[in-house]
Amino acid sequence: MNRAPSPARGPLTRFNPVQPGAAGMKLVATGLLVVMAAIFFTARALEPTYPGLAYVKAFAEAAMVGGLADWFAVTALFRHPLGLPIPHTAIIPRNKDRIGETLAQFLRDNFLVAPVVARRMRSMDVAGAAGRFLQVPAGGADTRSRIRQGASRLIGDIFEALDDERLGGIVKTAISSRLRAAEVAPVLGKALASAVAEDRHVPMLEAAIRALARALDANESLIRDMVRRRASWILRLASLDEKLADSIIDGLRKLTLEMSTDPVHPVRLKMEVALVELGHDLQHNAETRARVEGWKDDLLSNTSVAQWLDTLWQKGRAAVIAAARNPDAVMAGKLGEVLQSMGATLERDERIRAAVNQFARRAVAGMAASYGGSIVKLVSDTVRSWDARTITNRLEAAVGRDLQYIRINGTIVGGLVGLVLHVIDAL
Questions:
Q1: pLDDT tens by residue, 328-345
Q2: Residue 317 in 3-state DSSP?
Q3: Is-above-0.70 flag for pTM?
């Protein structure tokens, strides 16, 4: 019957050698030795009356010898038998440093060498496992869903525990530095040239023409006032300024209408040529590029941009924490659909799976090459820092039950050997 795990009380709790299994087997082995001793003395006392008990006495005598020998051997691994400083006993406590170095060497030679790691990972389908993990439905009882919830809570705790002001400053500084270091003019020029070449600039151009028409309607009174103030007194006297203003406004309206309906209108074509020239200058004209970079630096130095970056960081941080606190809601929404689609792609697309698995293999092999020595040193130093009792308790707890089986087997096998030898001697 499964036993409920007891709460942890310290670093040695799970290595405590006084466990029901190990203690019970130790009691059985010791009890068997005591039983053999009782049988031996009983058979020895009754042998003159019942000669057949000689076989029983031989079995019990050899069993005692075998049991005592194995008890000595098992005890000598971890401590001095009966507290006596017998040579070549308490082997593990005396050699704990060598054990730590040997264990570290074993890890280095079999697990932390880049070629070995890469070879072992060839049989691992990291992409497939990630795909199946991402496809677990939200709120499911699957172990992977529980792992995802635990990982999400951990991410949320980490983001809440981090210094918001310092981390936000780091993020904003990093973004601002990247933007300052990046030359945006060639990127804008290539984007504009590509848009014009593929006619993706047309909606933008038509939107600009419609905006011009709306601006004309909104500022009609301003145009009339400008014409009136600039017209001569003779025109105003003859009320010709009103007709002039009407003609100008009607002409501008007709121009915007024709530009919006005629794709080959001369003014519209000139605007497209201007866009092409602008895209070329952004890429190849040093003066234009320098002007754009100056505008970019001025924009990044503006306090409003700094406030916008701060708002962007705060919203991003809040979104991450909210998503981490409620991973089921995230997985149930559009983001969940995207992640599940990614999982299906990872699991089914052989080309992507191969690329992801190759990346994972190289990454882990690189980590083994870079940090394998540190891991080995950590293992060696940790074992070396343990005191003799700690390492004895941990190793004995790990193999104590099997060692008691050795004592039991030694008692039984010793008895059988003694019985066989007695039979041979009697014959």
A1: 665 555 556 666 778 788
A2: helix
A3: no
